[in-house]
Amino acid sequence: MKNSNLIKKSDFIKPNYPLDFSKLEICLYFSPGGKVAIIGSIDNNYVTWFSVSDYSDIEGNSEVFDLLFQKSLRQVASRYTVFYWNGDYPKVDNWYSKKINLDFNGLIYQALDEEKPYYWKPLVAQEVAKEVKKYFLLMRKRADLRAEHYQPILKSWLNKLYVAQEESGAFAYQRLENVLIPLINKENYLLLANDDTIRQSYIQVKKLLKSLYNDYQTAIR
């Protein structure tokens, strides 16, 4: 099973500070074509697992989840190396992402569907893998149903970001932080739409948003 981990041995490093491996976080990245990247992160700087499989591979994905739920992995790589610097890894920045929220020492997890935020389930690897399959199909359907109506909305968002950038400069992000930005982030399932025009428009919005965020962080340092 550890052979499924795409992180190269040469990329495993000694961390610069003590890590709490009990804080392992699992995030899913879905491609429009039905691939799911399963990422195990210790914190914002270090990752311990990176695998890519088909969203419908119940058996394979449940084996990965079972391994991650044990929290037994101890080798880490730089998140920057895996996500950005090393071109050998799949690029998932423009895939739809969803974190698996755990609670009660990892005994239960929160339902993936955001419309059921208070629904918690026992943490069983095979059941999580089954829900991943259902969740992908649900979100892709939602994206396709709403895509045809979202092109003017995406253009409006992009325009508002540019206007805020022109009027507020480096502090445009702060200006929109509690107004427009949460709405943009909530609609990131549009990255699963079959309509490439919609996906690219949303990606353009997110890239500008990231640029505004970086400008803001630079300004307040």
Defining key terms:
221 residues; alpha+beta; six-stranded antiparallel beta sheet; three-stranded antiparallel beta sheet; 6 helices; globular
Description:
By secondary structure, the protein is of the alpha+beta class. The chain has 2 domains: 2-138, no CATH class; 143-220. Helices cover 45% and strands 18% of the residues. The protein has 6 helices and 9 strands. The protein has a 6-stranded antiparallel beta sheet. A 3-stranded antiparallel beta sheet has the order 7-8-9, with no helix packed on it. β3 (35-41) and β4 form a beta hairpin. α1 (58-70) crosses α3 and α3 crosses α6 (196-220). The longest helix is centred in the middle third of the chain and has 44 residues, at 125-168. It starts with 11 loop residues before the first strand and ends with a helix.
Outline:
With 221 residues, the protein is an alpha+beta fold. It folds into 2 domains: 2-138, no CATH class; 143-220. It contains 6 helices and 9 strands; from the N terminus they run ββββαβαββββαααα.
List the helices and strands and how they pair.
Elements: E1 12-13, E2 25-30, E3 35-41, E4 46-54, H1 58-70, E5 76-78, H2 79-85, E6 96-100, E7 102-103, E8 108-110, E9 120-122, H3 125-168, H4 172-176, H5 181-186, H6 196-220
Antiparallel strand pairs: 1-5, 2-3, 2-6, 3-4, 4-5, 7-8, 8-9
**Unreliable segments of 5+ consecutive residues:** none
Count of the separate structural domains: 2
Question: What summary fits the major beta sheet?
Answer: 6 strands, antiparallel
Secondary-structure-based class equals alpha+beta
**Shape designation:** globular
Q: What's the total helix number? A: 6
For the residues shown, what is the average pLDDT? 91
User: Major sheet: order of its strands?
Assistant: 1-5-4-3-2-6
Specify Rg, calculated over alpha carbons. 18 Å
How do the SSEs run, as a string of H and E? Answer: EEEEHEHEEEEHHHH
Number of strands: 9
| Distance between the first and last residues' Cα | 43 Å
**How much of the residues is beta strand, in percent?**
15-25%
Helix content class: 40-55%
